[in-house]
Amino acid sequence: MSQALINPRTRRDYGATSSVIPEANSATISSSNAEFDSLSEEICYNINVMHSSTKQLEKQLKLVSTAKNLLAFDKNILSINTIDTNERIQITSQNLQRLQTVVQQGDRQQQRQMDNIKLDFRTALDKYSKQQKLISQAMRQSYQKAAEAEHDAELSEKTHLLQEQRQEQAELERQHDLLVERGRRVEQLEADILDVNYIMKKLSGMVEEQREEVDAIAINVEETAENTEKGVSALQNTVVSQSKRRRTVLIILLIVVLIALIVIGIIVSKLK
């Protein structure tokens, strides 16, 4: 609190002592009265400072719950309390003790003046102390709320991070399961490819066997045809040489043809 904000002349008039002291008093009494007046004036000034500080604390008390910059707010409160006013209270307490020693014995006016000063100091000190306690409690509550809010924010952040970690872990496990499943499918595909190769190889063998069978059937057909031609030739020769045996040859020829047809039918059915 700067002294420019406090008017040192604004103080209670506790009564002047110089008017009641006869000019014939000794130099010692005059010196004592001068010190009394000086101490009284300084004490009154400090009491006014205490009142001003109390009003400032009252204003600050209303701002505790709405203060955004708590550090600056706390610094301002401390400057009101410790830097100026508290020091003045200590000095005033010492000055009051000194004032009691310089009061002239039997001087009722000085005694009443000192009593009034002590009462005003006590009143100002009580108000200031009460306001200090109120703002201290308010600042403590504000600090606790801020600390709880910070703790809740940290807890929420930790919970959020833990939840994210769990989600990431679940996603990693899911990706791992998908990778395992994909590997299983690749192995199954490779197994299927091997099976197809085996089947194709086996089929190729069957085709080769069928080709050999067809070749064998073709050879048999050729042999049968050749034999048939030979039989026909023999029959023709027989018809020429032996007409009586035509019917028998025809029957034999029909039988041979029928056999050939049956053989061909069997071959065709096998090929299908």
UniProtKB/TrEMBL annotation:
The gene is LOC117567440. The keyword Transport applies. One of its GO terms (biological process) is vesicle docking. InterPro entries: SNARE, Syntaxin, Syntaxin_N, T_SNARE_dom. Residues 176-238 form the T-SNARE coiled-coil homology domain. One of its GO terms (cellular component) is endomembrane system. This is Syntaxin-12-like. Belongs to the syntaxin family. SMART domains: t_SNARE. Keywords: Coiled coil, Membrane, Neurotransmitter transport, Transmembrane, Transmembrane helix, Transport.
